[in-house]
Amino acid sequence: MDHPASLPAPILGRGAVANPPNRFERLVVELDPESQFDDDGERILPRTLFLRDHSQSILNYNESPDVSFKVGINPYRGCEHGCAYCYARPTHEYAGFSAGLDFESRILVKEAAPELLRAELSRKSWKPQTIGMSGVTDCYQPVERRLELTRRCLGVLAEFRNPVTLITKNHLVTRDIDHLASLSRHGAAMVAISVTTLDADLAKVLEPRASTPSRRLAAIRELASAGIPVFVMMAPVIPGLTDYEMPAVFQAAAEAGAFDAGYTPLRLPGAVAPLFEAWLEAHRPAMKEKVLGRVRSMRGGRMNDPRFGSRMSGEGFYAGEMKTLFAAARRRAGLPAKEKRPLSIDAFAVPSPQMTLW
What we know:
By secondary structure, this protein is an alpha/beta fold. The protein has helices at 101-105, 113-122, 144-147, 149-160, 177-184, 200-206, 213-225, 246-256, 272-283, 288-298, 317-332, and strands spanning 49-52, 59-61, 71-73, 76-77, 106-109, 131-133, 164-168, 189-194, 230-237, 261-265. α2 (113-122) runs parallel beside α4 (149-160) and α7 packs parallel to α8. Mean pLDDT is 90; it is low at 1-6.
C-alpha cells in the first residue's frame, strides 16, 4: 500500500513507526530524514542491539489489586516482539530510551537473572509464593532462544519447586515443557498464551516479531498435552478492530486444550497513545477514528484510565458490550473446561548441597 507523505510509513518488522522523544530527557536528537535511506532510496532498517543490564536484584514487587501476583521476574527490558499497542513501552523511558523504536530495538539483558533468583529463593526471609514472568515484557522474545535466561530461571524455580505463572506470545515456551511439567506435577505452574487475533496478516504488522496465531495455538496444544495448565488471554482486545474475533479465538483455544480464557480491553498510556495512533494511520487508516473513539469511550474520554479496578476492564457502553461478549464467547467455547485452582506452595524446598563422605 502506498502512503501519502503526510502519513507515517510502516517499517518492515517493526510495530512502531517512529522514535518519539523521551519525556525525561531535555536533549532531543532528530535524524536527518535523508540519513534514514540508502543510495537506492530504500529505508535503512533499525538494527536490534542487546545491552547488559547490571541490576543487582531480579524480583519486582507490586501492590496492584489488578495483578494476580505480587512478585515478578523480567529477564529483559524492552521487547523484540514490537507489539504496536504494548502498554510497557513507557517503561523504556526510565532507562533513557524512547518508547518507540528504541523499545523494540534496544533490549536490556539481565545476564545474572538465574543466579540472582537462586540467591533470592535461598534467603531465610523468602516466603514461598507465585512468581509471575512477563509481567512487563515477554520473557520468550526471540533473543531468549540464544541466551536461555528464562529457561535457566525456570530451572531454578523447578529446583526449588516455587510456583510460577507466565504469559507469552511465543511458541518458544514449548522448549521449556520439561521444567514446566516438573512444576505442574506439584501444582506449581500455569501458562497463559496471548492470542490477540487469528488474522495472520494483521498479526504480522500488529505484533511483527511474535509467533503467528497458528503457532500460538500450537503452543497451547503442546503445553496442554504435557499436562501443563494453559489458558488463553486475548490481551488486548482492540475495540473496532479485533473485538469481533473473541468467539473464534476462544473456540480455537479451547479446541487446542486451553482450560479457560481471559481478556483486557486496549489501554494506551503515555507515549503509547501517539505511537498506536501513528500505527493506525500507517496500517489501518480507515479504522483509526472508530478504534480511538471507542477507546476513549471506555477510558473516560482519554486513551488511558490508570485507576485500579477500571484500567483492566474499562467503563461505559463499549466496555459493557465487551464484557457481555466475553461471557457469551467463553460459555460457547465450553470454558472454563475445569476448575481453576490456585498454584500450590506446598512442595517448596530449598535444595540442600550434596554432601560427600570423601
